[in-house]
Fold these 4 entries.
Entry 1:
Amino acid sequence: MEKSNTINIIHNQNDDSRKTAKRLREKLLNKGFKTTDYFDEDAFLNICIGGDGAFLRAIHRFNFSEVPFIGINTGHLGFFQEISPDNLDNFIDKLSEGKYSIEKLYLVEGIVCTRTSCIELLGINEIVVKGIESKTIHLNISINDTYLERFSGDGIIISTPMGSTGYNLSAGGSVVYPNLNVLQLTPLAPINSKVYRSLTSSAIIPANMYIKINPEYRDENSILIVVDGKQYRFDNIVEMSFKVSDMRINLLTIGKRNFWSDIKDKFL
């Protein structure tokens, strides 16, 4: 079967992104690629134009498509976005020559159970469990079936390795190399007292283990769940569990991407 040469171009609505999308489309057509006005699941590449937020929203919007993603940065930090708008010709040349590789990103899967149903959530960067309106929440946290802590504080971040450089890092969590098959459990403003004893630093959880969180009864209706920046409210939450998902996202990279150089360039 002949390989598709169709590319999905996805962009946000700011001026730089729209202008870049127009230029990119013209350059791709001149190189013999096809682009569409709709999302084609049989395409060979998704190009997301914008910042990291636009990149994350695109993956969620198109239901974690198996088609590889790459980003063009018209935002601020652009940690996911590998390509500069000034470097489109070089990018398209390497794409034409097949000089690229595919990396797989680990995802975090959450199952939130209320008194009546269970809801599955999937995150690229992180899933955050926190109190509504900045309320202090109280959580009993276990790893597998081993009780770990009675947490009190603003909340908990469960981040993927790729997400470790986002909210997790801002909250004092550790940077984790992207190809490590782990999750990171990071506390948000933990309170330590005679009643509640919480870890004050992050913990790395391997893929063969899951994190289980049971809110105390008085907090069943006080929890806000944030998945890659999108907020969810559920009534009467009795249990939440999190693990490394069996699903992966394909990330196309041009040349050899150096994670530690990216860390230095973006953060130091």
Note: The chain has a mean pLDDT of 92.
Entry 2:
Amino acid sequence: MKGKRDYYEVLGVAKSASDNELKTAYRKLALKYHPDRNPGDKAAEENFKEAAEAYEVLRDPRKRQIYDQYGHQGLEGSGFSGFGGFEDIFSSFGDIFEDFFGFSSRRGGRGRASRGADLRYDLSITFMEAAFGVETTIDLDKHETCDACHGTGIEPGTQAETCPHCRGAGQIGRSQGFFTIRTTCPHCGGTGQVISHPCKKCNGKGQKKISKKVSVRIPAGVDNNSRLRLSGEGEAGAMGGPPGDLYVFIHVKPHEFFRRDENDVICQIPISFIQATLGDRITVPTLEGEKSLDIPKGTQFGDVFRFRGDGIPSLRNGRKGDQIVQVTIKTPTNLNKKQEALLKEFSKLEDAKLGKRLKNIIKDTAAKAFQ
């Protein structure tokens, strides 16, 4: 699939472009690729949609900031997915088209059903909840299609009436010399119809704001910034159109003992230098309880041990990673005189052993030199 072009490149402006510069650049492209000027030209249609999407993002300070920081992926994460078709573009930019061209791009008749906007929810969970999965409930404020009028905004038992000012055309024409310029009807907003009896339950809006509890199942193995999609839990669609989706972004709180590396779990275990020297069996915490670990004689600082299959499950195939145990060696402090004396004696024995080893190395080196 062909990737999206940079929005600044689409409009042919610099990243520092002002609102006026953006509007001027978009006006030029919209005029050039407008479908009424290029009937049946698929390439022009795509350029028209591309320019509209770029302008929609860059004219909005919030969307522009997200795009500048995170690009197209950041916009998708924030719930912006572009325009569904020409009707969405004309609905958003109808007033701009009037400013640009002296005519409206809206068609008469009630507006078409359109999909609702996507929503984003940021959810924080614990390290253990991410490892094992959890089902939780979130509180969501959103708009829902009015169940009385089913999104039409019209009181049940009544119907919309033809606008008496534009006679259902949605536009009003006025003559200027040889030309007739058509503009959006100010009385019906270009719909061609007026609602004399708005729905009492939603005040004619076709939607109502609600607070809803939504159940979210977090699968085992999610990581920081994982994204879950809940189909149909977004904003209600216009004119009874389908709702958008809800995207839940996961934020995993750090653990005081464990840390994660892909599907492996890493921890550090401190042992004494005596345990490291003589070896020992110790108890190590894991995600599912405690396990015994044999520390061999002569263990060094930073040595690593591994519990196979005690890590975090993969979201793809459910296969678990490992738990990696890294050993650190504690240096003893606050020794009494007897302990110091024993360590000094031990040091002398070690120095003697080291001295003998060095002498043997020197002797062997000299012997080889004269062979």
Note: The radius of gyration is 35 Å.
Entry 3:
Amino acid sequence: MNQIRRWAPWFALVVLFSIATSLLSWWQFTRRDERVQRIEQVLANYDQAPVEYPRDEVELSLTSWEWRPVKIYGSYLPESAVVVRNRPLSGQAGFLQVIPFELADGTILAIERGWIPAGSPITTPSANPLPDSAPRELIVRLRAAEPSQQRGVVEGQLASIAPAELQGLSEERLVTSHYGRLVSEDPESGQVPAAMPKPSLDEGNHLSYALQWVLFGLMAFAAFIWAVRNERRLRLEEQGLLPPKTKRKNQAQLDAEIEDAG
């Protein structure tokens, strides 16, 4: 009974630690599953042939249309252009250029045209080349709108690609659930921001981290069992019920014995 009272707090601590590692492992498995789903979506849609932009279908099933190339026809609205701040690329500070595009039926779709390096100071872009409002055919990849960051307003800038935050546009005609990432435009503009690279297909370290947390939980139980058994063995040795455990000699001790014998 005394032994139970002695080890009960340690056992409770091991259980709590194992629960914590299980939750952390589950969290990493969940993050990996989400990452794998995004990768599968990119693989399924990114290199598909462009189709006509079916707005209603996209609104009903945006997830299945993520990264899918579509064709749209209309004109840029350069007077409503903005840049999205805090978008580094290859370790360099920069911005994304976003310009509303009015389709032939009056629908307005935000277009992310590419990346612009930061200037001096880095709170402003080095340049912001805008297209004219001539009619064009665009091919864009559809992306879900980013959540609003609810940060301080900076004129001509947004904190995220949240089309609903674009100013001076008809709310009834503006698409707020998604936007397009530019692939090509015809006719081309004189200057175009740098195209964003294809999304990474790397799953990351989530699986290894998840397995590590599982291992930590098992190690805690193994250490607890070893400690209980070791204390029991020492107690039996003290009572003379078990012969003392013979310590294994290391190589230095064996070499010394050989020298002494010689």
Note: Residues 49-186 form one domain.
Entry 4:
Amino acid sequence: MSSEAPVGVFDSGVGGLSVLGEIRARLPNESLLYVADSGHVPYGEKSPDYIRARCRQIADFLLERGAKALVVACNTATVAAVAELRERHPGLPIVGMEPAVKPAAAATRSGVVGVLATTGTLKSAKFAALLDRFAGDVRVLTQPCPGLVECVEQGALLAPQARALLESYVRPLLAEGCDTLILGCTHYPFLKPLLRQLVPVEVELIDTGAAVARQLERLLGERDLLAQGPAQPARFWSSSGPAALARVLPVLWGEPAAVAGLGC
């Protein structure tokens, strides 16, 4: 495998672009491939078997295009499928997501942490294990957030609907004394500007995109696969109409780019 081969990143939709941005910032020499499985979004309401099947197909698609590593930029997909992907592709660097329970437990001053996540993530055994391992004496309040993923998919980051939904999800957490919020879905970091309007300034917002980029750097370095560059322009695919992803890329990625259909 060439060190100049690209890194493949995928999510149920556009949320993984928040992770892609962290990878670009930390590893600017890496060429990037991104698949938005927007034709099947949100994963949080799908069965584990359904999600595993989608992840197998997308992983194969990215590997056929020469990916030297995979980043599963979705908490729900990580829970359902990352173990199987690692079994199917031994030796391949594969990085998944997990809610930032450990850093949130360390950061809280009030002892109350709120988790904004999809239903699938909050129901998972992996999330329960994280709570058991890292929460300790911290009180963790979980809040499923139906509708937020769809707002981000549309690029409606400051829309009245997004504000109303987010306010309804955050208000009860603040009322319970929450001073630290885990953004447990890769779509949610794009809502930070809106969240900052809705929560006190002392409430800390924590996501794991930067940690994923650091882990990818570590795994590539261990295998002597860090690219020297220059990076090729990022390439994008979508399983729904490519025009929808192309429309939100300037907002979520910071620049326009061509988008192709996924075909699977």
Note: The chain has a mean pLDDT of 94.
